Amino acid sequence: MEKVKLALIGAGAMANAVHYPSLAEMPDVHLCALCELIDEKRQQTAQRFAIPRTYSDYREMLAKEDPDAVYVLMPPHHLFDIVVYCLKARKHVFIEKPPAVTTFQAEELARLAERNGCLTMVGFNRRFIPLLQRVREEQAKAGELNLAVAAFHKAQPEALYYDGAIDVLHCDAIHAVDALRWMGGDVVAVASHVGSSSSARQNRFVAVMEFASGASGVLLANWDSGARVHTFEWHAPGFVAYADPGGPDAPGQAVIRRPAGAQTISAAEAAGSTEFAKFYGFYAENRYFIDCLKRGQQPETCFSDAAKTMALADAILCNRIGR
Ligand SMILES: NC(=O)c1ccc[n+]([C@@H]2O[C@H](COP(=O)([O-])OP(=O)(O)OC[C@H]3O[C@@H](n4cnc5c(N)ncnc54)[C@H](O)[C@@H]3O)[C@@H](O)[C@H]2O)c1
Q1: Are residues 80 and 162 in the same domain?
Q2: pTM score, whole prediction
Q3: Range of 81's domain?
Q4: Quick one: 144 and 72 in the same domain?
Q5: What tens digit of pLDDT does each residue of 228-275 get?
Q6: Less crowded by CB within 10 Å, the N or C end of the chain?
Q7: CATH number for the domain including 204?
Q8: Per DSSP, what are the bridge partners of residue 35?
Q9: Residue 96 C-alpha to ligand 1 middle, in angstroms?
Q10: Ligand 1 residue neighbourhood (C-beta within 6 Å)
Q11: Where among 125, 147, 166 does a domain terminate?
Q12: At 1, is the pLDDT very low, low, confident or very high (cuts 50, 70, 90)?
């Protein structure tokens, strides 16, 4: 079997927790080299995943390794220059969410990728959670979506991402914003209430939106809540699903209700695994990226699509009721 040759930049938390373990399991993937600035992380990660060569300069790594694609796994304020370099070298690129600190940056990356014929993917893993994919299929079978709700709450009122490089909505609650686009499609209108409590910064984002289909979407994101809660609701004629896929601690479940009765599906059953990386969509998103590379197909969460999610987050901040 021909292997996809990957070069990796960044040996941080997400790389080690979910992405490299997923890729290392795939028989059609070769992790040829790793670049990381911190010696200890570089050595430990290379050893753990049997990566043969390491670098501290990604430019040297790209020149020497000539990989098929590059994973760039680091916070958004460190991404831009590196991703631009990879795209100019005509490499396909995978990054975590968010794709950039501003929508303008995300759009520029999308334009550069398109000009250079690169396949790109942003790790909006919620779209790849097996439980949510299963519920979405059941909803499509039942009928046309008329209402989607995505909620994401945390008990971190004063959360400050990367010393203030980016706000809560664009950095983290963006998962729920992107999920709504995945559930309902293109958004044509949005109105919001944005608030703050227990913090000088905005930490509550409530929005209603209209999809191009005419269906409604609701975002509920509150960082001054009681715990991490991240849930999804689909409504269609004679169909409602409440899904809580769980989180790092344990897998959750979905309940689908129809006039004939209720059906419960567990996140672990849908994924065939109780491993976080599997039931929470990380393995599946990496598998999908590799398959897209092999088929020469642009991933659905490519940079231009991710820029639309960033733009929707902008619209949520701008289109506030009564302003
Ligand atoms: N999808 C999710 O559910 C989810 C969850 C948490 C975090 N994230 C996202 O993952 C991204 C990465 O977060 P993280 O916590 O893994 O980051 P991290 O800070 O732990 O890791 C980044 C690594 O990149 C290295 N690095 C920085 N610049 C470099 C350079 N020029 N060359 C080589 N190495 C360099 C750093 O030394 C560090 O080890 C963030 O954007 C975050 O928003 C996503």
Answers
A1: no
A2: 0.98
A3: 4-125
A4: no
A5: 999 999 999 999 999 999 999 999 999 999 999 999 999 999 999 999
A6: N
A7: 3.30.360.10
A8: 9, 55
A9: 8
A10: 9-15, 35-38, 41, 58, 73-76, 78, 82, 96-97, 123, 125, 171
A11: 125
A12: low
Atom of ligand 1 nearest to the CA of 17: 16
How many A from CA of 186 to the centre of ligand 1? Answer: 29
Question: CA-CA distance, 8 to 66, in Å (whole number)?
Answer: 12
Distance 148 CA to ligand 1 centre (A): 31
Q: Are 148 and 215 in contact (CB under 8 A)?
A: yes
Q: Whose CA is nearest to atom 25 of ligand 1?
A: 10
| Domains of the chain: total | 2
Strand order in the sheet with 204-211: 187-195, 204-211, 216-222, 147-155, 224-236, 239-246, 251-258, 261-266
Query: Which residue among 86, 96, 152 has the greatest number of ligand 1 atoms within 8 angstroms of its CB, and so is best to mutate?
Result: 96
- Residue 268 and residue 256: Cα distance in Å, rounded? 16
206 and 113 co-located in one domain:
no
Q: Which residues contact 164 (CB under 8 A, 6 or more apart)?
A: none
